[in-house]
Specification:
This protein is 84% helix and 0% strand.
């Protein structure tokens, strides 16, 4: 059941991961070009697109759960299909949080901060393992199903303060052409003299 669920999770995640990669590049390029407002607009649109994808895919997955399970196992395996449905339901309800995780983490990385995304990844690992172990001994398998959503939530909690700090900083900056920055031009001139 876990193997089936992870394969289906990948169908949900691949578009989110792809958009996250695009956000990293978009953010870094626009930060370099000092197009701060454009960074914020791109972030907003990426979050909206990814969250919509997460919600739509979850609705499709939950509605057509037997079809998705049937891609990997026989329709006669009713017990496994029921367990897979529980997995789809639990994870699917939290795909919108996963969408936010991928985009915000990518945005922070594109901004040039690698520490916070690394800490978020560590939090994700600790939450997944912790919830799995604690749930297994307390509430059983249904609790273990919540380990991935708990990991996503834990990671987002780490990312949110940095996200607010960065977006506040960007809103306070004025868009500008790199060529207008006198200090940067002097630094470039000094670097060219060495060459």
């Amino acid at each position: 059941m876990q193997a089936i669920g992870r394969q289906i999770d990948l169908l949900a995640m691949l578009p989110m991961i792809s958009l996250g990669l695009a956000v990293t590049t978009f953010t870094a390029q626009n930060f370099g070009a000092r197009q701060y407002k454009r960074m914020l607009i791109g972030l907003k649109h990426a979050v909206i697109i990814d969250v919509i994808w997460g919600i739509v895919f979850a609705a499709i997955l939950i509605t057509f759960n037997k079809f998705f399970s049937g891609l990997f196992i026989s329709h006669n395996e009713t017990k496994i299909i029921h367990l897979a449905f529980e997995y789809y339901l639990v994870n699917g309800l939290f795909y919108w949080i996963l969408a936010i995780l991928f985009v915000v983490r990518a945005f922070i990385q594109g901004y040039g901060n690698s520490l916070v995304p690394t800490l978020a990844g560590m939090a994700e690992l600790v939450m997944r393992a912790g919830v799995s172990v604690l749930s297994l001994v307390t509430v059983g398998l249904i609790g273990v199903l919540f380990s991935s959503p708990a990991a996503w939530i834990g990671s987002v909690i780490i990312l949110v303060p940095s996200y607010f700090k960065i977006t506040k900083d960007l809103r306070g900056r004025k868009d500008g052409d790199v060529n207008d920055d006198k200090a940067l031009n002097e630094e470039l001139d000094d670097a060219l003299k060495i060459i």
